[in-house]
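Researcher: Next sequence.
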Amino acid sequence: MKIIEYSIKNRIVVLFATLVLTLAGVISYFRLGKLEDPEFKVKEAIVVTLYPGASPESVEQEVTDKIEMALRKIPNADVDSVSKASYSEVHIKIDESTPSDKVDQEWDVVRKKINDVKTSLPLGALPPVVLDDYGDVYGMFFAITSEGFSKEELYNYAKEIRKELEKTDGVAKTTLFGNSDTVIEVLVDRDKIASYGISPTVIAQTVSYYMLGGDKANTATLKTDSEEIDVLVRLPKEKRNDINTLSSLNIKVGDNKFVKLSDVATLQYAEGTSEVRKKNGIYTVTISGNDGGVGLGKIQSKIIEEFNNLEPPSTISYSWGGQSENMQKTMSQLSFALSISIFLIYALLAAQFESFILPFIIIGSIPLALIGVIWGLVVLRQPIDIMVMIGVILLAGVVVNNAIVLIDFIKTM
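Model: Next structure:
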């Protein structure tokens, strides 16, 4: 009652405060992030490890059990696994009560546990990979295409744009799609290795040792007064991708007898199988980005700015996709639905109150309610998504109902 009396007696103050909040709300609206679907955190991750040539029993005993043992040390975590030929898959599910902003920290702990167990895995097993990004929601996709350029050239353009985009405050995460890494293929000559009495497994194990450093069973141990340190010996990082260095690796073929890798195999650079994307038969490289609070509009402007700064040929074009495109369609549809609902409300109120003025006063409370919605999103740092828009439509009905009660009360005073 006191609030109503104060508002009636101090109209100028109330109008000024409303105007300030409205202007601030409008400005904040354009700075809010916009997504079609809300981002969510999945509290489950998968640890995948490849062990080429190993049976399910070997994978279980030599890989899966070791990873499980490490992950079971994490409190309140459920761990289960699947072991197949050459393949290990371990699922870890953290406590459902874990706050969303703490989930990434839990995955960091998981990665540390996996890093600790890497050195105990058998020779020939590839490094485990932790997959934990199921809940990532990318706000927009920026696709670069050209008929006259290779995907490597397009990828270089995309890398430069991504490099500058990551320096922008408020960009939460960026990812490149459509790139394929260059790898070194080792093509073994089976006739030659048969003449030396060795198998392809010997080649694979030797190369793996030089690249990964072997396992605990085949490494030196440095003992100090308080601990034992396993020493892994492998090629320097800059040498692991040098085809000349790899060609000169020694392969043991007997007691004190060695041959060069190039004597029994052909080494060549080749395109990896990371990912190849095409759009209408044309190679495409895509940059995805997620809004961290600056709004998709600013991210899009930054991408276009960096794209133009590179001065690409006229044959290279770009297009937008993802949630930025879907959100525009969804917002248009929901805005139309909100407009229809407001019109119907006005028609019903005009018939009920037998007045064309009072319905405008009642409906005028809807924009004021939206100010509270915007400020709530700003304070909680949440983007506008489809769930927010549905909530706004429901809020319009609640606000109108309250306004009707208030107008009726004022008329009886």
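Model: The first strand starts at residue 44 and ends at 50. The chain has a mean pLDDT of 77.
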